Amino acid sequence: MELENLTEVLDKYASLIVTGAKENLAKDNKGDGDLYNSVDYDLRVEANVFLLDFLMEDYGAFVDEGVKGKTSTYSESMMSRFQYGTGTGRKGGLTEGINGWLNKKKFQWRTKDGRFMSYQTMTYLIARSIYNKGLKANHFFTEPFEKYLKKLPKELGQSFALDIEKAIILGTKK
For 57-90, how does the pLDDT look when each residue is reduced to its tens digit (9 = 90+)? Predict the structure, then answer.
């Protein structure tokens, strides 16, 4: 039995969630980066089992949930499952990511005497600040996911009923 209506509903909702996540990133001026471009979904139907995966860069979860710092100041991040200094992350990942971002954006701060600060110094200052203060939760993905998840059960039930009805009609014709 093919569950076309059910597949269509799941595909529609996954698309709405991805679109909502991308819109949220664009609102926060993150609409031109690797994270924005990586947000997607993969819906597979195998032997009437539905597998729906939401895809994004690894650091997307940190942006969405925020990260507790050593001396966190963001209340939203206090509930995050992530924390700097736990030793569970990739060593040097924060510094590497910031350095890559700075080089990609090509901007530099100036020192008090007007000279440009090196990327290495800027990377250190930003990484130290993030390590201590944490990252504020953005909820770019969580908000559309929860919003559309509330509406999903009703439509899933209706589409499943249509698929069952179609299977019964086809079965009686044979």
Answer: 988 988 898 888 877 655 656 677 777 766 656 6
- Pull the structure tokens for residue 14: 């996954």
How far is it, in rounded angstroms, from Cα 36 to Cα 30? 7
Name which of 101, 115, 129, 109 is nearest 35 in CA terms. Answer: 101
Q: The tokens 């890559």 sit on which residue?
A: 100
3-state secondary structure the chain: CCCHHHHHHHHHHHHHHHHHHHHHHHHCCCCCCHHHHHCEEEEEEECCEEEEEEECCCCHHHHHHCEECCCCCCHHHHHCCCECCCCCCCCCHHHHHHHHHHHHHCCCCECCCCCECCHHHHHHHHHHHHHHHEECCCCCCHHHHHHHHHHHHHHHHHHHHHHHHHHHHHHHHC
Which residue type sits at 91?
K
CB-facing half-sphere around the CA of 21: CA atoms within 13 A: 26
- Distance, in Å, from the CA atom of 135 to the CA atom of 76, rounded to the nearest integer, reads 9
pTM: 0.73
Task: Summarize pLDDT for 76-129 with one digit per residue, the tens.
Answer: 566 777 777 666 566 667 788 888 888 888 888 888 999 999 889 999 998 888
Locate tokens 């600040």: which residue?
A: 129
